[in-house]
Amino acid sequence: DAGITQSPRHKVTETGTPVTLRCHQTENHRYMYWYRQDPGHGLRLIHYSYGVKDTDKGEVSDGYSVSRSKTEDFLLTLESATSSQTSVYFCAISESGTSGYNEQFFGPGTRLTVL
Amino acid sequence: AQSVTQLDSQVPVFEEAPVELRCNYSSSVSVYLFWYVQYPNQGLQLLLKYLSGSTLVKGINGFEAEFNKSQTSFHLRKPSVHISDTAEYFCAVSEGAAGNKLTFGGGTRVLVKP
């Protein structure tokens, strides 16, 4: 299994509070991604990173920010959590995105509940 | 923009019976196509992928899929399912642009019954 960990694995929080989810990899892969999974929608890309301090928005980026200060860590922040952000969040990594295609490997997920 | 439609949200099937999961996509450019499986309370695992070449792709656990460009489809099949195939299956597409971004379908939940 690819070396990807996510923390925390489960979190319950209240509306309006800030929340940060962490993705950590030991593979030294260049690309990192945050997805959310909701019933009927599959996985939708929130943000992704193509290098340290290089990030870009995905399909559902509103209400989320990200940071990547080290190759191995990619943080997802909900500045002020809302109930619509209750979801399962997955981190993924891939080796490169500029030539051909390289498989994305997924972490175990974080289940976030916003009350 | 690319999109992916999985036509069945749930597929019940008896053990040792065949199963087909349907996937259609839309894109204005050439794409790469994937099927992922998610077992309960786990992350996603790649079953198979189509990048180029033969349109019949074989994956892990006895699954295969056929790329049909004219019908913009990438249906997944298994001739004989096991109880352990109970999972959710996701079709995904990438246009291969920088970033390898994936667009997923809504998923098909397969329940294998004894």
Folded structure, characterized:
The complex is a heterodimer of chains A (115) and B (114). Chain A has 115 residues and is mostly beta strands. Chain A is built from no helices and eleven strands. Chain A has strands at residues 4-7, 10-13, 19-25, 31-38, 42-51, 54-57, 64-70, 73-78, 87-94, 105-106, 110-114. In chain A, strands 2, 4, 5, 6, 9, 10 and 11 form a seven-stranded mixed β-sheet that branches. In chain A, strands 1-3-8-7 form a four-stranded antiparallel β-sheet, with no helix packed on it. The mean pLDDT of chain A is 92. Chain B has 114 residues and is mainly beta. In chain B, 0% of the residues lie in helices and 53% in strands. The A-B interface holds A 31, 33, 35, 40-45, 48, 50, 56, 58-59, 90, 94, 96-98, 100-104, 106-109 and B 4, 6, 9, 32, 36, 42-46, 49, 51, 90, 92, 94, 96-107.
The total beta strand count of chain A reads: 11
Number of helical segments with 4 or more residues of chain A: 0
Using CB atoms under 8 Å apart, which protein chain pair has the greatest interface? A-B, 28 and 27 residues
Strand content of chain A: over 45%
Q: Distance between termini of chain A? A: 33 Å
Tell me about the biggest sheet of chain A? 7 strands, mixed
Query: How many beta-strand runs of chain B?
Result: 12
Using the CA coordinates, give the radius of gyration of chain B: 14 Å
Order of helices and strands of chain B: EEEEEEEEEEEE
Q: Supply the number of helical segments of chain B.
A: 0
**Overall radius of gyration of chain A:** 13 Å
Regions with little confidence, pLDDT below 50 for 5+ residues of chain A: none
Structural class of chain B: mainly beta
For the largest beta-sheet of chain B, the strand count, sense and barrel status come to: 6 strands, mixed
In quaternary terms, these chains amount to heterodimer
Order of helices and strands of chain A: EEEEEEEEEEE
User: Which structural class best describes the helix and strand composition of chain A?
Assistant: mainly beta
